[in-house]
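Work package 3, deliverable 3.1, input record:
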Amino acid sequence: MLMTFIGVPLSVIGSLLHWSNIVLFIIYCLTIVALASYMGRATESLAIVAGPRIGGLLNATFGNAVELIISIFSLKAGLVGIVLASLTGSVLGNLLLVAGLSFFIGGLKFKRQSFNVYDARHNSGLLMFAVIIAFVIPEVFSINMNETKTLSLSIGISVILIILYLAALFFKLVTHRGVYQPSTEKAAHEEEEPEWGKGKAIAVLFIATIAVAYISEHLVHTFEYVGETLGWSELFIGVIIVAIVGNAAEHASAIVMAFKNKMDIAVEIAIGSTLQVAMFVLPVLVLVSLFFDTTMPLLFSWQELIAMVSSVLLMVVISNDGESNWFEGLTLLAAYLIMGIGFYLL
Amino acid sequence: MLMTFIGVPLSVIGSLLHWSNIVLFIIYCLTIVALASYMGRATESLAIVAGPRIGGLLNATFGNAVELIISIFSLKAGLVGIVLASLTGSVLGNLLLVAGLSFFIGGLKFKRQSFNVYDARHNSGLLMFAVIIAFVIPEVFSINMNETKTLSLSIGISVILIILYLAALFFKLVTHRGVYQPSTEKAAHEEEEPEWGKGKAIAVLFIATIAVAYISEHLVHTFEYVGETLGWSELFIGVIIVAIVGNAAEHASAIVMAFKNKMDIAVEIAIGSTLQVAMFVLPVLVLVSLFFDTTMPLLFSWQELIAMVSSVLLMVVISNDGESNWFEGLTLLAAYLIMGIGFYLL
Amino acid sequence: MLMTFIGVPLSVIGSLLHWSNIVLFIIYCLTIVALASYMGRATESLAIVAGPRIGGLLNATFGNAVELIISIFSLKAGLVGIVLASLTGSVLGNLLLVAGLSFFIGGLKFKRQSFNVYDARHNSGLLMFAVIIAFVIPEVFSINMNETKTLSLSIGISVILIILYLAALFFKLVTHRGVYQPSTEKAAHEEEEPEWGKGKAIAVLFIATIAVAYISEHLVHTFEYVGETLGWSELFIGVIIVAIVGNAAEHASAIVMAFKNKMDIAVEIAIGSTLQVAMFVLPVLVLVSLFFDTTMPLLFSWQELIAMVSSVLLMVVISNDGESNWFEGLTLLAAYLIMGIGFYLL
């Protein structure tokens, strides 16, 4: 990806020379997408070197590092609305767009594709917990609460979400490692080799993270102008644009995996990523926001909440049988399109 | 059915002589029920002659022709509320009453009845998509939208629904025909013989459609008087009465199939019919309404929406295992009764 | 349990001498817990003597006798809010706390535990019916109804719930007894021996019921003072405290069963108890309230309703595969904790 070597200097120069916000917005977005793919590869290499347990933890924390960084700068700038919108978009994008494209494109090549049904059900349970319980409860309870209580509830739920997320890693990587997997799969995992050595991976991760952080800080400030110029609402920028930029790397790799009929990995990227955002990135941001001027309670707009709830219900029903085909993919894509139109018009 | 030969002339004479609206209402309803069964048989015969692909398409379009016709005349008369109510009623009636009676009556004869679990899951996905996504999203998003935007969203969703419905037919009849069926079933399907020849079937379909159209136009105008006289609300007439009249033919055949232990067909009629209404009849009506004075956005009342959402969730959970018994039927019937009481009191 | 022989006299003396309400509240609660365990053992013994059919009926009616009694006295005192709250708490407590602890503690000992998947699905259908249909519909329909109509709807739904509950017993104990059970289980059930004889069991049941009734009447009157003193809201007392007191016996026995790897029984206690409350205790109370000054329509607060709806959806997804592990238990417990915090802050 040559993009990185052009994009990063361009971003720095552009921001110093105060180029047009639209141009900067596009440069920033493309550069972040390129950097994200580097970070993904570095994390992947480190994870293989570190072994499955620490590797899983690394993946879990760095997998959505880009989103976390963009969000922290947005929070610092007081853009709570955009942060919640972009996390909503990340959930919708991973659940409907990434999984939808994987199912659809994989399904064009293969008539029926199957994935580990136990993992699918484990993930369904977590999706229900995170979205239907942890996001819905503060929304409904805060109706009769003042701000302080709403914030207390948000903090409590955030802590519970993070603990349960760590417990899920512990469950998957320690106590129940391989319990729900067919033995053939276990063997296949052993062979992987890291793309980069430990030193190079850490260096790439370190440099790319700093670059993403620098660009993110500037990206955030272009939102307002871009929205005004193109007539896009804050919600649409957050839910659709930022979400696609922040998750571009995942999109690409999930679809490649689906095309190779490795549906287990494709589904894991799509749903695993959703869970990372919902159960780790979001609650961490709620807690981080306590150190900023504007705190962020766990309160989505009703439109965001219902969009997530209905997507989760659709995904749970569709993924429950451990099989996919092109039509299921198309259904998810159609759902994403409906949400996209909805947020655009809002 | 002698009813047709008496009912049609009676309807014409009655409407010319301005008989009491209650009497006319009853004559119209019974005649439509009789004509609907003729249309059903004609469609069935044509479908067999035309082969499974075109036949499936024919069934899909003419299967709910009666409802479509009644609804278009209601729309022309500006009765948007009654149209949405009758489509809600059609969804509830097919999901709860038709399937409930099939499961219950079939279950009285057989201890456990089973149907194709793949079809059931495919249908569950579509039900979730249509009701939980396509109907819920405009309801929640329109809260913060003006009328023009709500209509744009409705049009977009309607187009997506129709495309996905056609894609589902393509999936079932072309790319995945027989993929999810046990081989024994495939053989059984070959033997069917059409009841009527091609010419007779087309003639019956043509004449019956015209007769239904004529009567429907008059039926629509009796609603107001009937409601006032019997103390029934517009909602109750739409959700319960019109829905039962419009779906009487399906009711009868689904129950007969269940009694013969052909649960695949019974379920297909009940849920397939629901999907036709939700993904084809309704969006077509939204688009057709653009040519009339009163446009119809995809906005149900909250009561209608929640009734459909909860029915779909119940049906998904109950049908998910591909088995039925009398108690599952009774549960669906009890749910229908609760909705019936609710709409009556509203 | 020595607690009973000290608790009952203490309760009587305390209430006569007008001890501090907090002290009385604690004595009453502990005594009821002790008495409940006696009633449970008496019911169990009677059920074995009476055979599975009458026994099932006995369990169904006396299983939640304590809750029914406390609630009737609360209703008589006009505390409709507390009754609905405590029934909500009973549903949440059984679904999330009892099942969660069973799954978690059982899962600490066994890697994978399984229970009858047919029963789990049967119960899922009933949970959906009771909570998603019978509780949600009056909530949404009553928005546009006056009080009389809301009460009529509540009465209608209550009657339907009771009939369906009895039908479910008929289904399980008569028409489909053993149909969905592996043959090994059937054999195991024959051996049970009653702990107490018929006469002793009836005597214990009779005396304990009177004692519970006496104490409950006094317990109800301490709620207000306890709430004021400890800063607990009526909702929190109802949903969390009363629910735990009323269901302590079930909690203990479900966990013991899970620890013995008898997950069928643990799940039956947790979910069966939820269904008893939702489909029998609650509708009976609605009907009983017609004889009191303050009638109780089937109307929960939105917070209570959404808490129950989301818990049911979570449980349906988690229990659907007929397997459990410690992490699924932890997920349920985390959900209970979130609800607890929510109701505490409300």
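The first helix of chain B runs from residue 3 to 17.
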